[in-house]
């Protein structure tokens, strides 16, 4: 699984002009499921994100996690994060898991993160065309990948 994590002051997602989810201070996660990913990948990523210290403490250092600040989380499925642009000019998405495999793992990630945080997370709609708005704070943007656990 690969995610782009963005620290936000606020974020929202709409589908066909209808607001689906919105958050205040917290994290926007764009999540892609790769062929071969398992529940273990979803659980590891959720645990890592819940504990990742990307919020500033009173001294201005990034020492606080999303759990510690009781921040919000918005998760958006985005298979295009696994695009390969090696050949030609049209991206290939062969590394992205097909929907019948990706959806249960996406749902499992959301459930695992909800459990880690002890509260629900907002989501978009798996497979839908969505409009995502955000105010990136910092800016702080990171890529986490369960296949490259750094």
Describe the structure.
The protein is α/β, with parallel strands linked by helices and 150 residues long. The chain has one domain: D-tyrosyl-tRNA(Tyr) deacylase (D-tyrosyl-trna(Tyr) Deacylase, Chain: A). Helices cover 21% and strands 39% of the residues. It has two helices and eight strands, in the order βββαβββαββ. The strands form two sheets. Strands 1, 2, 3, 6, 7 and 8 form a six-stranded mixed beta sheet that branches. Strand 6, helix 2 and strand 7 form a beta-alpha-beta unit. It is globular, with a radius of gyration of 15 Å. The two termini are 13 Å apart.
Give me the secondary-structure topology.
Elements: E1 2-15, E2 18-23, E3 26-32, H1 39-51, E4 53-56, E5 62-65, E6 72-77, H2 99-117, E7 122-123, E8 131-145
Helix pairs in contact: 1-2
List keywords for this structure.
150 residues; alpha/beta; D-tyrosyl-trna(Tyr) Deacylase, Chain: A; 6-stranded mixed sheet; two-stranded antiparallel ribbon; 39% strand
Shape: globular
Enumerate how many helices there are, as a single number.
2
CATH topology group: D-tyrosyl-trna(Tyr) Deacylase, Chain: A
| Percentage beta strand | 35-45%
Order of helices and strands: EEEHEEEHEE
| Arithmetic mean pLDDT | 95
CATH architecture: 3-Layer(bba) Sandwich
Fraction of helical residues:
10-25%
Q: Report the sheet with the most strands, covering strand number, pairing sense and barrel closure.
A: 6 strands, mixed
**N-end to C-end Cα span:** 13 Å
